[in-house]
Amino acid sequence: MAFHYPNGTPFTNHEAQKTKKQVKKSKPIQFGKRGMDFEEEINKSNAYYLHHHIAVVHKKPTPVQIVKVDYPKRSAAVIKEAYFRQASTTDYNGVYNGKYVDFEAKETKNKTSFPFKNFHQHQINHFQHCLEQQGICFVLLWFSSLNRCFFFSGEKLVTYWSEQESTGKKSLPMAVIEKEGIEITLGIAPRIPYIDAIEQHIQTNKRSCDQ
Questions:
Q1: CA 93 to CA 195: how far, in whole Å?
Q2: How confident is the model at residue 209 (pLDDT cuts 50, 70, 90)?
Q3: Counting beta carbons within 10 angstroms of the beta carbon of residue 210, is it exposed (0 to 12), middle (13 to 18) or buried (19 or more)?
């Protein structure tokens, strides 16, 4: 199935690979002796938070316009061509303890840094708009080769992204992520307890405002 932007340009970048993962069975990411699909475990964590009345967070659907469908037989239809109606913003949004939450989930096999190419300008712009409205924005960074997960605030991501042109840096160094992010210890229920990181982020910002 071919996807295109509204202007007709074929959609073949990193997001297209992500779309294919949603259609095909995802290759599990190894965590210890168990396999783990990062996005799936976030979805399960969201279900845990919803069931326990902790937070309401869902994955955002991407609006798609279908333009070509084949009907090989009367009981089945196959989509052959479709267009994304608009550029996607971030993966997840919802509400936690009366606060709007908006975040993106990204992963890399790199061990020493997280490439900026995994992000897009429209996602940074979206973070900026949400932050202006006092929303809680962040990215969950998954280092699959290291089995490490980090919470990295939207404020800091926007700052480092904006400094790319002046610094020439093409990625976030691990040293920066370890120092300025919050490492999330993976658990069982929920597997990715990112709400704990949100609370730590809120308390850190509160202390900064009080000083």
A1: 13
A2: confident
A3: exposed
- Under a CB-based contact definition with an 8 Å cutoff, are residues 97 and 84 in contact? no
> Which domains are seen in the chain, by residue range?
37-62+87-210 (3.40.1350.10)
CA dist., res. 208 & res. 55, Å (int): 25
d(CA 203, CA 161): 24
User: What integer pLDDT is reported at residue 66 of this predicted model?
Assistant: 60
Instruction: Identify the bridge partners of residue 34 per DSSP, sorted by sequence position.
Output: 31
b/e code 179-209 from CB counts within 10 Å (16+ = b): ebbbebebeeebbbbbbebbeebeeeeeeee
How many angstroms separate the first and last alpha carbons of the chain? 55
Q: What is the mean pLDDT of residues 56-76?
A: 71
Q: Is 31 left (phi over 0), alpha (psi -120 to 50) or beta?
A: beta
Whole-number pLDDT of residue 167? 85
What distance in Å separates the CA atoms of residue 104 and residue 122, rounded to the nearest whole number? Answer: 12
